[in-house]
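so my prof wants the structure for this chain in the tokens format not the other one, which i didnt know existed until like an hour ago. anyway here's the sequence
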Amino acid sequence: MVYNGKPSKACAHCRRRKLRCDLRKQACGQCLRAGLACTGYRDPGQLRIQDESESTKQRALGFKSRPITSAIQVPLEETARAAFFSHYVHGFSTTYDVLELIGGQSGLDKHLAASVDAVSLAFFSFQYDAVSALKPAREKYLSALPLVKAALGAPELLASNSTLLAVLLLDLFEKITNRSPISSESWMSHVRGALVLARLRDPAQLNTYIGLRLSVRLFTNMLISCVAANAPIPPALTKLHIELQPHVRGDDPKWRVSSLVMKYANFRGTLQGGLLSHAEVLKRAKKLDGEFSSLARDLPPCWISQRVALQKPSSTVLEQYYDVYPDYFTAQACNVIRMMRILLNDLIRQTYLSTVAASGYLEPQALNVGFASHLIDSMAKEICAAGPQFVDLPEARNRPSNSSPSRRMHCYTLLLPYYVAAFSASPETGVREWVVQRFRSMATNLGIKNAAIVAEMLERRDGTSPWSVYATLGSYAFAA
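here's what i got, hopefully its the right format
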């Protein structure tokens, strides 16, 4: 008897008597008397574990392979919408996080859904250099326009959150696809329309998260649009700023920056009239620069950067150090302050030089020109020191990983501050040459085409206005 390859007791009896019952082809008498059916010993070859891998492989090769599943085709619109949400709602920028809250209440209204589709395709085309998405983006945009117009004619939708958001998204579409603010009326048409809508809304909506968030977004978008297009600040925007004041933290650095930028925009508007004397220009410019400087000194401790010195020379930093910020958004806000100070001091420097040209004597103004240049160079170097943390240094703290989708956007939003620094800094600082190298690196290693375009502007020294560059880069479409 065999059990699990081992002989039974009866077979053990056979072994003690040295009987070869397995060769007799019958059971021995002892086994029969014990009432057991002895089958004898098994063939050792049957008990041996053998490697059947090769024979199994050969049998498998005899069958025709078939794919288990077919490839999943995700529609372009769904892919684009997912990219848009991952950037503007959940990811790098939460600028339009209210979209999820509005959609979660009762689903998206048709005009809002159409606007989301249009701007999603436009963003996808830019972010992933997907030319195939640009045509359907424009088609969706054209189909969204009549839907938004119909919503404006419906009393229940006219002043709704969904309608205001839809118009803001159409404005975002224009900023992504249209880079010529001076020559195109459409570049500001939607944000102007949104400002009109805001006047029709119940003031109580500022007490809600969605209402306040949309109004602050509208204020910021309209303000920056005016600055970039060199347009005057409309009275309605000034009124909106006053209405928002009680609902925001007065000590919020970002709000304080926005308020000072508004003063800067009004100052630029006054300059366009050409009615200010050199003395008045200098007085107002210095006063505003002092306010930006005061804001920079009063930043919360959690905003303060830490300087890190490099042990070895590196082409990825201008001077042998870089600054580490708590996060990208803090660094961005600090760079806005520096850009404003550079632009103001460049105006101060040019005004002094104009005075020199008129009088023919440099000596009285040489010290003032030198001081303005010193401030510009200092701000330019600080901008350059703020970039490596997010772009070039693999050992830098709080740096996005190479695989992070936000890293490319981090680099992209550095284009404007880098350009302003290179545009205005003194030649002896080497800022222009260093920035051009960084732009070339971004274009080559990260595929940022606009980095190469801006690098060429600096190399040509064609004097392109920083605000024109800002519009070319997509304005606030890609900044937080």
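also thought this was worth mentioning. Confidence is low (pLDDT under 50) at residues 1-10, 22-27.
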